[in-house]
Amino acid sequence: MDTNTIYAKLNKIFRDVFDDDSITVNPKTTADDIDDWDSLEHITLISAVEREFKMKFKMGEISSMKNVGEMADIIAARTKL
Question: How confident is the model at residue 80 (pLDDT cuts 50, 70, 90)?
Fold first, then answer.
């Protein structure tokens, strides 16, 4: 799956989870950039991403992700398999 497709899908997920159509994520987007992104919403977000991309993140991956770019990199690596 190419990077543009991943980010298009991530944008849709973020907009749905945070109920904000103005969100546009990029590789450097972090929880600090989105007002409602707290620990509870993070769980909802991860679940939505896993459903959309038909994959499961490992606990270590979830805890080490620092931004959306790292999430997209994991998705890209997994979808190449």
Answer: confident
pTM of the model: 0.93
Is 65 within 8 Å of 29 (Cβ atoms)?
no
In terms of phi and psi (left: phi > 0; alpha: psi -120 to 50; beta: otherwise), the region of 19 is left
Residue 77 and residue 69 in contact, taking contact as beta carbons nearer than 8 Å = no
CA separation for the pair 5, 67 (Å, rounded):
18
Sequence-separated (6 or more) residues with CB below 8 Å from residue 7: 25, 26, 72
80, HSE (Cβ side, Cα atoms, 13 Å): 8
Asked if 52 and 78 touch (Cβ cutoff 8 Å), the reply is no
Task: State the CB neighbour count (10 A cutoff) for residue 68.
Answer: 23
